[in-house]
Amino acid sequence: MKRSRYLLGASMISAVLIASACGNNADENNGADTNGNDNGANETNETNDNDGNADNNDAEADGDAPQGGSVTYGYTAPFAGLFDWNWYEGADDSYPLTIFNGEALYDVDQEDEFNLAPRLASDWEWSDDNLTVTFTLEEGVMWHNGEELTAEDFEFSYETIAHPDYDGPRLSNVERIEGFDEYRAGDADSLEGVEVVDDYTLEVTFQEALANNLEELWPYPSPKAHLEDIPVDELEDAPEVRENPVGLGAFEVSNITPGETVEFTAFEDYYLGAPNLDEVTYRIVDGAQAGELLAQGEVDIIELEPTQASPLEDNEAVTLEEIEALSYSYLGFKLGEWDAEEERVDMNNEKFQSKEVRQAFAYAIDRQGIVEEFSEGYGTVINAPESVIRWSYPDESDLNQYEYDPDRARELLEEAGYEDQTGDGFVEDPDGEEFTVNLAAMDTPADIAEPRAQYIIQTLQDVGINAQIMDGQLLDFNLFYDLVEEDHEDIDIFLGAWGLATADPDPSGLWRSNDFWNFPRWDNEESDELIAEGISEEAIDQDYRQEVYQEWHQLVNEELPLIPLNSPINIYGINSDVGGVTAGVRHAAADSHEWYIDEE
Asked: Which UniProt keywords apply (predicted)?
């Protein structure tokens, strides 16, 4: 086995980073992916994924790579088929989107402290008042339908998301634009703050001068000529999105088998030059067989669980690459539900209103044991909902550590009035009512999902909490997130993960009381105020901004609407004959035009 290690050093943690999660992280809002691998992450608003770190077999000089052939990119959860950046919700769809339509206004340069680098925008310039940014777009960038990319495609994308009939997860990426409120309310025919100066010049004016306006602005255009005749409330299910999507990437979609495969063929008019390969296939595989399929050559690129990677360490046909991920996993509490009419959370679940009860859960769960037992030590236990490679990761010395302490868990339960009144070994609530807890969890990764869920259940039962897996079984990836989003009445706690779009730490999109992706449904006025302060004009000063986020993390750490579990290390398995692959902090699907096969 060829082995290469690409772990980001400690310098990346303290580096002054400018990039933000675009979409605002859900990739935190910044783009969040709800990733099926809990030791990986989920992604919701994602900025461009070309933020890689390591190239596999990068000895081939540019322009000298072998030509032709096909590569298969594997994933272990069925895709939903929302092949449009404005609508997608999970990593399952973001990977094929990256392959055929991964072009954005800018790249997030992982090798340069996550700063923004030109991509579709060759340049941009700010006004003196920091309210208006003017983008100069690359010329000659072609959509797969033969239309040239223009500023109108960005305007169309922003107006689609801001439209009154749009119900997708990207609102936070356009809500700062001047005129958003009027357009969203249906009182204006266009977004006042978006001006198409000419085909290659776009001006965007914001309502306020905030610290991360550029990083939070949605960076993806939408093919206007392909979609403009479809009503916004029909776009999500339109054949033009699910069956015949159009992109700007090096490969175009040639065939989709729902939930199973997406096939791509080379797009010769790709603006950075024709790709090396003839074809790429995105294939859904059984997660339990991922390592075996890689060794057999059935897939060429796939993220592996540590238990799957270990048997491949002596296999010369496989290269393993490790990288600290821009993501985190967590155990969430369902504190309430989403009020669609008010467009905000309603923290109405009495079950977990006691902070002491939530803290008892944290002490009851052996988080380090989870990392050791199910990830072979790959990952870092965290006490904040943040990736350790972000500059904003807080000073742990100021946080409650919640180290595994069953006795402390029992003490907190007793202090909150939860005691075993029937002698069955499980506590009742302060009113003497039965206290049962349902855990919702995904069935991936296939080899560890069930034992990991049972491990958590057992640790909770050990301190007297009558916990069980909801309905006695794990859930399919898409069903899991459907139920979490719908606040299914049977869910009490849930295992999830967030893939963070880029390095900007703005929690908007995941954590405000009016954020749909605030899955715990946590409503906290102080949190909302700190989140707003963290992107204020004063927060353009990096030191000030870090102080704000330290305070915010301390608040979350104390109130504990969710229990942070770990910041993972991702392992990618790559066929040793496949070169040019970029292993990034979230996936390895970027820059597919550079992939090649060298069988010599």
From this structure: Signal, Transport
What is the distance of C-alpha 323 from the center of its chain?
Answer: 16
CATH number of the domain residue 244 falls in: 3.40.190.10
Q: How many residues does the chain have?
A: 600
Whole-number Å distance between alpha carbons of 386 and 499: 10
Report how far residue 106's alpha carbon sits from residue 101's, in angstroms, rounded to the nearest whole number: 13
Kindly report the pTM of this predicted structure: 0.76
- Residue 225 backbone dihedrals phi, psi, to 5 degrees: -65, -25
CATH of the domain at 335: 3.10.105.10
Over range 99-120, report the average pLDDT. 86
Residue whose C-alpha is closest to residue 218's, from 413, 23, 398, 368:
23
Give 27's pLDDT tier (boundaries 50, 70, 90). very low
Residues 342 and 489 both lie in one domain: yes
Average pLDDT of the residues of the chain: 89
Q: Distance from CA of residue 68 to its chain's centroid?
A: 32
pLDDT tens digits, 356-401? 999 999 999 999 999 999 999 999 999 999 999 888 999 999 999 9
Using alpha carbons, select from 487, 453, 440, 287 the residue that is nearest to residue 370: 453
Q: What is the 3-state secondary structure (H, E, C) of 79-130?
A: CCCCCCCCCCCCHHHHHHHHHHHCCCCEEEEHHHCCEEEECCEEEEEECCCC
Domain around 557? 327-570
Mark whether 223 and 100 lie in a shared domain.
yes
> Could you give the C-alpha distances from 101 to 222, 281, 595, in angstroms and in order?
10, 14, 16
At residue 579, the pLDDT reads 97
Q: Are strands 132-137 and 121-126 parallel, antiparallel or unpaired?
A: antiparallel
- Other Cβ atoms less than 10 A from the Cβ of 41: the count is 33
pLDDT in tens, 123-136: 999 999 999 999 99
Residue 53 lies in a domain: no
What is the percent of the chain with per-residue pLDDT over 90, rounded to a whole number? 78
Give the C-alpha separation, 274 to 173, whole Å.
Answer: 32
C-alpha pair distances (Å), 113 with each of 109, 227, 408, 543: 7, 36, 40, 16
185: which 2 tokens? 């309310």
Residue 552 tokens, joined? 């915010």
Model pLDDT for residues 156-206, shown as the tens digit of each residue: 999 999 999 999 989 989 999 999 999 999 999 999 999 999 999 999 999
Start-to-end C-alpha separation, the chain: 16
Phi, psi of 255 (to 5 degrees): -160, 140
172 Cβ contact partners less than 8 Å away, ≥ 6 residues apart: 23, 24, 29, 45, 216, 508, 509, 515
Q: Which pLDDT band, with edges at 50, 70 and 90, does 208 fall under?
A: very high
**Per the domain annotation, does 169 fall within a domain?**
yes
Structural domain includes residue 57 = no
| Burial class for 42, CB neighbours closer than 10 Å (0-12, 13-18, 19+) | buried
